[in-house]
Every structure is written in C-alpha cells, then in structure tokens.
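Help: why these numbers?

___
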Amino acid sequence: MDLFDDLPEPTQTSGPVSAAPVTARPQSTKEEEEEEKEEKSIKRKREDAESCTDKREEDKEERGEIKKVCLPVLKGYVAARRGEREEMQDAHVLLPDMSSCLSALPGQVTRVSYFAVFDGHGGARASRFAAEHLHHNLSKKFPSGDTENVDKLIKKCLLDTFKQTDEDFLKKASSQKPAWKDGSTATCVLVVDDIVYVANLGDSRAVLCRLEAAAAADGQRRLVTLALSKEHNPTMYEERMRIQRAGGTVRDGRVLGVLEVSRSFGDGQYKRCGVISSPDLRRCQLTANDRFIILACDGLFKVFSADEAVKFVLNILQEGSVEQRAGLTEEEVRFEAACQQLASEAVRRGCADNVTVILVSVGF
C-alpha cells in the first residue's frame, strides 16, 4: 500500500448546456406557432440540462469528487518526562485548530491542525526556538485564496518554513558570546482537512495506527502500524554520502564522531560538514479506519518498537473500566491515560533520555 501518492487532480464538472441561437425570419402564423413550440422545447431541455448538472455536482459532492470532506475529529494529548537527564531539552506544540494563526485559508480548505515534537541536544535553546517560531513561520507562508494545486504549495511551504526557522536560529546563535551550539530534531504533523503532511528532521518519529477495513477469518480486524516519517542517521548511505561530499566524516555512527543525527535545526558547527535542515515530507489521507497518531522523540523508540508502542496504547484504550474525570469523556480519559502511561513505561524500561510523547486521537 503506497500511502504517499500525489493527490488526484480535481474532477472537471460540466457546465449548463446552452441552446444554439435561432435566427429570426418572416414566417406564417402556423410556422410561428411551430417556432414557439420549438423554443419552449429548447427552454425545457436547457432547464433539464441545468438540473442534471446540479444533480451530478451534488452526487460528486456526496462521493467526494468535489472536495466536501468529512473532517476527522482530532484531539491531542502530551506526556513529557525528564528521565535521568539534568535538563528537559524536549519541546512540543499542540494546535488542534491553528486557523486563528492563519490570515486566510485556501478556498477549498476548512481546517488546519498542527502537532510537533522537538528533541534538543547540546541545550534546550534550539528546540524551544523551533517550538516558538516554526508554526508562526508556517502560518505566514501558508497558501491562501483560491489557489490551484494546494498540495504542491503546502509541501513548498513546509520546506521554506524549515529553512527559514533554521536560518533564523543560526543567526541568533552565532550572535551570542559564546555562540550557541544547540541543535534539535523535529517531527511536525500538519493536518489539512483529512490530509496528513509530516515533515521531519533527525530521529524523532511519527506513526499511524490503522485497522484493516476487512475483518480476518477470526472476525478480528488486523492492526497496521504505518511509518509517517523517515529517520536521518549518519550511517544511512545517502546521508553518509552527503556528509562525506561536504568534507565531513562519520565515525562510530556519528558526524565527526559526535553528532548522532544527520539533519537538524541549529548545530551550526556541523552545517559545513553536510548536516542539513531540509525535512523529509510524507503525506497520507486519514480514513475512518484510523485510530491515532503517535509523535515521539527517540527516547521512546529506544525502548519501544513502533508496533509495540501502538499495541501498548491500544491495550489501554480497550481496558475494561476507567476512572471518570470531570469535563472529560470516557474516550478522552482513556487517551490521556494511554499517553501518560506510554511515556512512564519508557522511563521504567530504562530510557535515560528525555521522553516526550504526543498522542493524537482520530475520529470520524
């Protein structure tokens, strides 16, 4: 299953059928009556054609060919643990509806949501800077008005936003005395109506829990864990080749024997060695079979595989009884508990790193 195909081209809708012009000429009374009948017939055909066109457009709206989507209900939950580190260097942002940050939405877009986790290293300044500024830069560059090919514009917007955020931080970092040497990974999930765009740097990850549409022979619907991001490790062939072409080296699985990731915000001292801030971009469409998305820093995935994390959350969601909390539905209590317990279990399993988990529930 290829989740990341391009969006289909918008379907062209036919317009009303117009009648051919009739040239007036002198006629007898009988011919005038026949002409009047013909004009009435043409008028009826025109009205029928317009009615059919409207009906076809309504049918297409129902089928989704004209973009009138059923928006998923998204709710975000977050858990952060310092672990054994002296400082919490992770940062995160949850904006289930970031429409207030946008000056205007494209004509065919109804809602935009944004969730992001940033795993800092060498200090917390890069991760905090990205958490504070990335979505504001994104809102300034986000397409607006009646634009065509919104998908392509959103991808360009994400690339430009990451580039600007990195440049802004590096400029600020280099102006300090002594210069800041902080860096940060990033995994950002942007949901435009029912389309998920994921942009990531480094080794933070995003995964989607999806249930197969058809039940198996035992009546159970199989679980599918879908990777929505790509890790950037200097030992990967493409990453290592870029680093070496830039004059850098990879020793002990690290850039210059020090940096564990090959793409990041900040890390100014490694940018001349092939470390870049261009994110990988992936996209997929949410369906009624999707349950939740997990965004997390590598602290979680050092002690959990993606499948294990998804199954851990599902087990908590399916537990028999839950303690009711004022102002929260039973489902919200379950998701909150699953998020908190997943982060705590990562620490219990011996992760000494900071652990930040964002759990996004998906409902239709």
In short: The longest strand covers residues 112-121. The CA atoms of residues 107 and 296 lie 33 Å apart. Helices lie at 29-63, 125-141, 150-174, 237-245, 268-271, 298-301, 306-317, 330-348. The chain is about 35% helix and 20% strand.
